[in-house]
Design brief:
With about 325 residues, this protein is of the alpha/beta class. Helices cover about 40% and strands about 20% of the residues. The strands form two sheets. It has a six-stranded mixed beta sheet with strand order 10-9-6-7-8-11, with helices on both faces. Helix 3 links the parallel strand 4 and strand 5. Helix 4 packs across helix 10 (about 300-310) and helix 8 crosses helix 9 (about 275-280). It binds 5'-O-[(R)-(carboxyoxy)(hydroxy)phosphoryl]adenosine and zinc ion. The site of 5'-O-[(R)-(carboxyoxy)(hydroxy)phosphoryl]adenosine has 19 residues, from helix 5 and helix 6.
């Protein structure tokens, strides 16, 4: 089975080919990130126009890399939710037309589920696991049981990646600031500043807007030092230590609560060095991380989730993949 995976939910345009469930034949990614930098965040219209320009080229490049002709494909998997609606429309329209022309099924894929699914290329899927999805737009805890997703909790305000990007901006760094703060944090003192863990009503919910304000207050209090390297390193280290410990603590609590020892991470922030270290130190947990190059959005994760669903005998038609900006799962409670 050869699955084509198409991803255009945000600033990436990506097409991959997966053979069976484990053999990567191609994964081509074209990003518009550089075009958004001067605006300090993703501009939806720029992202969708970039996908429109790139879609066909990336598709052709991917088939060339995989040494395939379109008619050899068995299935098309395309992100149809959640995401920027203009960007989603580009990928979904392309997928539907291609599926119709080739007379093969088109599977509409939940982008967040795909972020976790990419972990299982070359590995066996645990029957039950806790998923932690951490990106610029999402911070979600899910329970996955026999392939079905249930929501456990999530952020009540900012996403974790968004908090990283905003703190980095306050310190004068460019977008996206997550990887920059992660590097600075490794040179800083995590005990230099103390941040209080926020309390939410939901047992498994998160909040990152309070720490963002607390960081801003520290920067204002230390105005004369805010450009100082040691101050930036220490503030990054203290911020990173706090938010990552909050994430890990609640994820482990969820694993205990739902009686599983498997934790699966996905999304751009799962590249974070401290997050990886903290989970690796948890002795009673088997943790899955995507390889760093697969943490950000790509077509391969979409192909993998599509192939999984297709093999579990889900039926798809060429026109069944309508785009939706939002998505929800049933509650785990
Ligand atoms: O999943 P992703 O590529 O795009 C979406 O938001 O959908 O995630 C991007 C986010 C950005 O906020 C970026 O700052 C953050 O992931 N990020 C990191 C790291 N690498 C990327 N945050 C913390 N530590 C990192 N090493
Ligand atoms: Zn994503």
């Amino acid at each position: 089975m050869l699955t084509l995976g198409i991803e255009t939910s945000c600033d990436e345009t990506s097409v991959a080919v997966l053979e069976g469930l484990h053999k990567v034949r191609a994964n081509i990614v074209s990003s518009s990130l550089l075009r958004h930098k001067k605006f300090g965040g993703i501009v939806p219209e720029i992202a969708s126009r970039h996908s429109l320009e790139q879609m066909k080229l990336v598709f052709q490049e991917s088939l060339k890399k995989a040494r395939l002709k379109p008619k050899q494909l068995s299935l098309i998997a395309v992100t149809n939710r959640p995401g920027l609606i203009g960007s989603l429309l580009v990928g979904v329209s392309f997928a539907k037309a291609l599926g119709y022309g080739l007379n093969i099924p088109v599977a509409g894929i939940n982008h967040l589920e795909a972020h976790l699914a990419i972990n299982f290329i070359g590995k066996k899927i645990p029957k039950k696991y806790i998923g932690l999805i951490v990106s610029g737009g999402h911070t979600l805890l899910v329970l996955v049981k026999r392939g079905k997703f249930y929501k456990i909790g999530g952020t009540v305000d900012d996403a974790i990646g968004e908090a990283y990007d905003k703190v980095a901006k306050m310190l004068g760094f460019e977008f996206p600031g997550g990887p920059i703060l992660d590097k600075l944090a490794q040179k800083g003192n995590k005990d230099a500043f103390r941040f209080t863990e926020p309390k939410q009503e939901g047992l498994f919910d998160f909040s990152f807007s309070g720490i963002k304000t607390a960081v801003l207050l520290e920067i204002q209090k230390n105005k004369t030092r805010s450009g100082n390297k040691q101050f930036q390193n220490d503030l990054s280290a203290s911020f990173q230590y706090s938010v990552m410990n909050w994430l890990v603590k609640k994820t482990i609590k969820a694993a205990d609560y739902f009686k599983t020892s498997h934790v699966v991470l996905g999304g751009g922030v799962s590249a974070n060095s401290l997050l990886r270290k903290l989970f690796q130190n948890e002795k009673n947990i088997e943790v899955f991380f995507p390889p760093i190059q697969w943490t950000s959005d790509n077509g391969l994760m979409i192909a993998r989730r599509g192939a999984e669903l297709f093999q579990s005998k889900k039926l798809f038609t060429p026109v069944s993949a309508s785009p939706h900006a939002l998505s929800e799962w049933k509650s785990a409670f």
